[in-house]
Amino acid sequence: MDPKTREDLLKLFQGKLNEAMTFYLETCTRCGVCIEACHVYASMGKVRYIAAYRQEIVRRIYKKYFKARGNVWPSVGDAKELNDMALEELYEAAYSCTGCRRCMVYCPFGIDTQMIMSIAKLLLVGAHSEPEILTLLADTSIEKGKSLDIFKESFLTGIKKLEKDVVKKWKMEAGGTPIPMDVQGADLLFVALAGAHSIIPTAAIFNAAGENWTLSFFEAVNFGAFVGDPGRTQLILDRIVKEAKRLKVKEVCICECGTAFRVMKQLAGKQPFKVSSVTEVHARYIKEGRIQLDRSLLNGVVTYHDPCQIARNGDVIDAPRYILKHLTNHFREMSPDPKYNWCCGGGGGLVALGEETLDFRMKSSKVKADQIKRTEATTVVTACENCHTQLCNLNDHYQMGVDVKFLSSMVADALVQK
Amino acid sequence: MNTLYYFVLIPMVYFSFTVFFVGTGIRLVKIFRKPKQSTSLQIYPEKRPQWLWALHDTFLFPSVRKHKPVLWIFLILFHVCLLLLMIGHLELFGEFRIFQIIPHEVFLGKGFVGLILCLAVLFFLFRRFLSPVRELSVPEDYYLLILLFLIVLFGSQMDWARRWYGYEELLVEDYRTYLLSLLTLKPELPYNVINSGHSFMLVLHVFFANLFLIFFPFSQSMHSFLSLPMNKLRRG
């Protein structure tokens, strides 16, 4: 690595050193309480997957360049130089961490490994060593925000094709628009994923509840967050914020995507609209009697996988359980305490990297598969696209013989037509 | 030899306390003046009032109790004994009525506090020799524990000598004269402090304690100040 590159990377590092990050880098006592916290370590048993070890990969560089003793006495903290080998270690640490923050529950100080890994990811972006596909996807999203007019027509045509499927699920009254778009003054802006499965069921539920809603032109997923690039993350987020302000909506509802929900809820800042997850909105409809669900459709034990970014990191814990109570009499918890739920093993961009990470994802999530098996459930429900894909992969790999379903699809299927 | 004793017991003490207070102060001010995190770092479900739960997490280590109960017992013993020893040291400056609510001879605990602390430090140290904590540890972790062990061992030995072996040469009054002279910036070394049979223990105790204080602001020991704000971030 040439000195100029190193200098540039250290500037990026410096930019991440706010108060909380400094707490996290200064404090670890390497007590080892977090050893059992990481699903990758629990499944694979390799020391490099322990949360404190991952953090130390970043912390060693911090000790070298941002602490006085890095010059005076580097060996006391195993301070390491930032070089090509260090970048490889950073890659291994960052892209084997799903950012689930289960280790934060274990740590006596509450050190956030995901946040420390965001330094690793940013340095990789700076060194052009990040997974290219994630940057490409992020750039495509940003481009779409810049030149909406080019995409608008083809998107509208695509949505028109989906409308008849929505009507099939929920008969519309004459004159109704099954998937409204660009509605000024709508109450709710729904931000979905690029895929019919993310739009059709929820559209049917909105229509059944008589919601004054509109579909966003943009997909919810934030690849900028996966790749750990704060600039791109903000640009992708801003597209939706601008659209929500332009349409003057009261609420932005994020589809079943953990990262999108957490980024929107926490990064959007103070806005004239509130941010909800689609699960919260559906639970609200049931509570207000706006939709009724048929409880007789499901047979066998049903369990729910809490997506880390929505539950432990996003506070949507009661809503899915409330919905499931209206869908089945045979609900069984996966973990006695939702904040200890194992990550599915697909977060942090790992599922988005597809086949490339499949082998690792399967090996590193054995504890998740075992946890599901222990529930003896025949249906595993979740409310996150990444988790769903990963759970399906686990189902195939470990031959669990379960049905993996989206919560929103189950609500749509169980809608009682008046 | 007297010069060496003088150096460790007077100028080095002033130097290390200056490094400790100024170093820790500057480092804390620098850290707390950095920009705040704009997003929430909270873990859910939340419990209210959050500040009370943050205090609970900081001082009672519930996550350690849940996941590593044996370590938790030693951690609690270690921190409680450390607090009692700090009180003991304050009492070497003068009598505080508040500490005499439970009437006792200086130090509290009849010598057992130091013994428990020694054992706890040894437990922490030997724990680091076993995998996987061994792979996580860095030299700093060992140095700090070895330093603590030496400080506590030599310090306690002086207490044990008075309490357990009936050694009457170096008394609380001698320490008081020495420490008050340091505090009032008129340093003096009473005859007993540097000429009794156990003076070398006092000198070693103070020497290692000086090293610890000098290293403190630059080490992970800063967790003593940062743990509460960090736990508050997690509790929201």
Task: Summarize the model shown.
Chain A is built from 20 helices and eight strands. Chain A has 418 residues and is an alpha/beta fold.
Give an account of the 3D structure.
The complex is a heterodimer of chains A (418) and B (236). With 418 residues, chain A is of the alpha/beta class. Helix content of chain A is 52%, strand content 7%. Chain A has a 4-stranded parallel β-sheet with strand order 2-1-3-4. The longest helix of chain A is centred in the middle third of the chain and has 22 residues, at 148-169. Chain B has a single domain, classed as Up-down Bundle (Fumarate Reductase Cytochrome B subunit), CATH 1.20.950. Chain B has 236 residues and is an all-alpha fold. In chain B, α2 packs parallel to α11 (199-215), α6 (112-127) packs antiparallel against α8 and α8 runs antiparallel to α11 (199-215). Chain B is built from 12 helices and no strands. The model of chain B has no long low-confidence stretch (mean pLDDT 93). At the A-B interface, α2, α4 and α7 of A face α4, α7, α8 and α12 of B.
Question: Key terms for this structure?
Answer:
heterodimer; A: 418 residues; alpha/beta; Fumarate Reductase Iron-sulfur Protein, Chain B, domain 2; Rossmann fold; four-stranded parallel beta sheet; 52% helix; B: mainly alpha; Fumarate Reductase Cytochrome B subunit; 12 helices; 69% helix
Radius of gyration of chain A: 22 Å
CATH topology of chain B: Fumarate Reductase Cytochrome B subunit
CATH 2nd-level architecture of the largest domain in chain A: 3-Layer(aba) Sandwich
Instruction: Please describe the biggest sheet of chain A, giving its number of strands, its sense, and whether it closes into a barrel.
Output: 4 strands, parallel
Uncertain runs of chain A are none
Order of helices and strands of chain A: HHHHHHHHHHEHEHHEHEHEHEHHEHEH
Count every helix of chain A, treating DSSP H or I runs of 4 or more residues as helices.
Answer: 20
The backbone outline of chain A, from C-alpha atoms, is: globular
Seen as an oligomer or otherwise, the chain set is heterodimer
Q: Total domains of chain A, how many?
A: 3
Helix coverage percent of chain A: 40-55%
Structural class of chain B: mainly alpha
**Beta fraction of the residues of chain B?**
under 5%
- Sheet-strand content of chain A, in percent, reads 5-15%
| Average pLDDT over all residues of chain A | 94
Report the count of strand segments of chain B: 0
Write down the CATH class of the largest domain in chain A. Answer: Alpha Beta
The secondary-structure class of chain A comes to: alpha/beta
Helix content of chain B: 55-70%
CATH superfamily of chain B: Transmembrane di-heme cytochromes, Chain C
Number of strands of chain A: 8
